[in-house]
Write a structure and sequence with these properties.
single chain; alpha/beta; Metallo-beta-lactamase, Chain A; seven-stranded mixed sheet; 9 helices; 14 strands; about 25% strand; binds zinc ion
């Protein structure tokens, strides 16, 4: 069984709607938009593997706080999986000893809190029996989507992306994919903004779905929280034989 629990599934924060963090197992999380406000101390200590899709704030927001939390509880180290480029962006702009200390040297260079594990597009890696295939998606900064496999179960996860033939091609070439988490950030009314920021509207998602060569279950996420009702209304008007379900925080997406 493969299960993803969205701790936060929005493209920003508002009231109880939280930025992106997806728990793939108790020890593996994709992005750190909301782990600190979603998990208790024991659950946080269980996280050993953090996958970062890109450097945007709604995805890395809790990473510095999480590093501080792990160090202050006795140097519980963890591994950050991302590309070399994104790693450099995170080091240059967050852990630069100005915005936040360099946790790749704390408490010591030999035994740091954060260990980076560089990953490459199209080269799969495994963590505790779950395989991740990193896919380059089309966003305003370098950004990762994933095909995630556990046993015979598969989920495709778009990350932040605009219209992206690479993501569509990966789905079409793998018949085991029947469940897709696909970002849908803005309502149709704001298509210009979606295009400029390389995100999707429901109408743009509908265009992507027409390119998929089989029926899949689609879980939409990364909705701007203040525009949620409008985005969901637009999503309901999509004419597609596929089942489209807006993601809900803490409600697992399960494939078995
Ligand atoms: Zn985002
Ligand atoms: Zn982004």
């Amino acid at each position: 069984m493969l299960s993803i629990v969205p701790l936060g599934c929005y493209g920003s924060d508002l009231e109880n709607k939280k930025s992106i963090s997806m728990l793939v197992s108790p020890s593996i999380v994709i992005d750190t938009g909301s782990i600190m406000s979603s998990l208790d101390t024991d659950q946080l200590l269980a996280i050993k593997h953090v996958i970062i899709t890109h450097c945007h704030f709604d995805h890395v927001k809790n990473l510095p706080i999480f590093a501080d939390f792990m160090l202050s509880l006795g140097n519980h180290s963890f591994t950050v999986y991302t590309t070399e480029n994104i790693m450099t962006q995170i080091m240059d702009h967050i852990f630069n000893d100005l915005v936040w200390p360099d946790f790749t040297r704390l408490p010591s260079r030999k035994s740091p809190t954060i260990k980076f594990q560089p990953i490459r597009f199209d080269e799969p890696f495994s963590i505790e029996g779950t395989e991740f295939l990193p896919i380059e998606v089309d966003h305003v900064v370098e950004s990762l989507g994933f095909i995630i496999r556990h046993g015979g179960d598969t989920i495709a996860y778009s990350g932040d992306t605009g219209i992206c033939s690479n993501f569509v091609d990966h789905i079409n070439s793998d018949p085991s994919i029947k469940t897709i988490c696909w970002e849908t950030s803005f309502p149709n009314r704001l298509e210009k903004l979606a295009t400029a920021s390389k995100h999707l509207t429901p109408a743009m998602l509908a265009g992507e779905l027409e390119k998929i060569n089989r029926h899949c279950e689609i879980h939409t996420f990364h909705l701007k929280p203040n525009l949620e009702d409008e985005i969901i209304a637009d999503t309901k008007s999509i004419k597609s034989p596929m089942k489209i379900i807006p993601m809900k925080q803490k409600r697992p997406i399960t494939v078995s």
